[in-house]
Amino acid sequence: MNLRLRPIGLDEANAFVARHHRHSKPTQGHKFSVGVMSSSGLCGVGIAGRPIARQLDDGFTIEILRVCTDGTRNACTKLYAACCRAAGGMGYIVAVTYTLATESGSSLRASGFREVAAVKDEQWSRESRPRLERDLVGGRIRWERLL
Question: What global pTM score does this model have?
């Protein structure tokens, strides 16, 4: 199957995520998004932005916030690689992303990422900074790739 990349806006990427992602919601913002096309049309999106974790938000780290496909073979790997190439071209040094602990990470390994940490899932609200409760999905794995 011949997969092609194309630039995509956040509204279109988020609409795709809302229709196809198993457990994550659309993102609030982004630095850039990319789509992957098959002969039948848009089959996946990648959304990259500032790291959610404040400790990683150093100006040289990009977080791949969402990668979502309709199941088309190799689309995830192509999107991770495209996000990394774009971020590297913009001057970012490290790309990070997260998977659920129950996910294999095979597309990440194929794209050059390595598993670096297990992250406990907890509510974001603290006494000093109240936040809305969110759905907890269990532990996550943080992955990194040098760009």
Answer: 0.88
